[in-house]
Write a structure and sequence with these properties.
By secondary structure, the protein is of the alpha/beta class. It has 10 helices and 7 strands. The protein has a 5-stranded parallel beta sheet with strand order 2-1-3-6-7, with helices on both faces. Strands 4-5 form a two-stranded antiparallel ribbon. The protein is elongated, with a radius of gyration of 20 Å. The model has no long low-confidence stretch (mean pLDDT 93).
Length: 245
């Protein structure tokens, strides 16, 4: 029997949609309401044939990207799909998820339920389904071939970059160079130089001469990818304290 994870903080989606999937498609559904619950399930070794994941989890200050990345890292065989309202405030996050992970389809919560069910049927039978037309305009016509999970490594190549991104993740929205210098202990010119070093790589992610505020927003959206690399450098530095910035 096909095993489907439905991850959404909306009770209506979890309860109603899960019941419909069981009744109409005869599948096993595991309905969870938080990214933390999904990650705990992954850590326990739970396996899913399909994961239907929402993008926004404001109560956790986390996103569906974190859940999808955890699921994909643990099991490449799981078919990944996004279920979303498709509001403008998640548009950039949706693009990040779409370009960085093998997303099989995007389901709109606003679509007729029969259309949603048909998308899931196709995921079960074909492993892919048409994207909801209402969401299609939010996605690029083609995925950027140069953008990948691995491409983030070029954004955190040494201790100084790790300090910059860590400070941006911890900063207020109106972050300034002085804020970053104060948080990291780096000189102002050093902070500016590190930002300049990253500009060519940031263009891969759609950021062209971004402000610190725009870099902070990007860092928050893609936090799980950047944090992994920051943690790797911190671990290396603990083992080799003389590693240069």
């Amino acid at each position: 029997m096909t095993r489907i994870l439905v991850l959404d903080d909306s009770a209506a989606v979890n309860d109603l949609f899960a019941r419909l999937l069981r009744a109409e498609l005869g599948v096993e559904v595991i309905a969870l309401a938080s990214v933390a619950e999904a990650e705990a399930a992954v850590e326990r070794g739970d396996q899913f044939d399909i994961a239907l994941v929402d993008l926004s989890f404001p109560e956790e200050h986390r996103t569906g990207l974190e859940a999808l990345l955890s699921i994909h890292t643990a099991s490449k065989r799981t078919t990944l799909a996004v279920i979303t309202q498709g509001d403008s405030f998640v548009a950039q996050l949706l693009r990040d998820v779409w370009e960085l992970l093998p997303i099989a389809t995007v389901i709109s919560k606003a679509a007729p339920i029969n259309f949603q069910l048909d998308q899931v049927r196709q995921l079960i039978s074909k492993g892919v389904a048409p994207i909801d037309p209402s969401v299609q305009p939010l996605l690029p016509a083609e995925k950027a071939s140069s953008r990948s999970v691995e491409s983030f490594r070029r954004l955190v190549t040494h201790v100084g970059h790790a300090k910059l991104w860590s400070a941006l993740l911890a900063a207020e929205e109106d972050v300034s160079y002085r804020d970053i210098a104060s948080a990291t202990g780096l000189r102002l010119n050093t902070v500016r130089n590190y930002r300049a070093q990253l500009l060519p790589e940031l263009t891969i992610h759609g950021l062209y001469d971004p402000s610190l505020r725009e870099m902070r927003s990007f860092a928050w959206r893609c936090r799980p990818l950047l944090q992994r690399l920051i943690d790797e450098i911190a671990d290396r530095q603990r083992k080799s304290p003389d590693e240069s910035e």
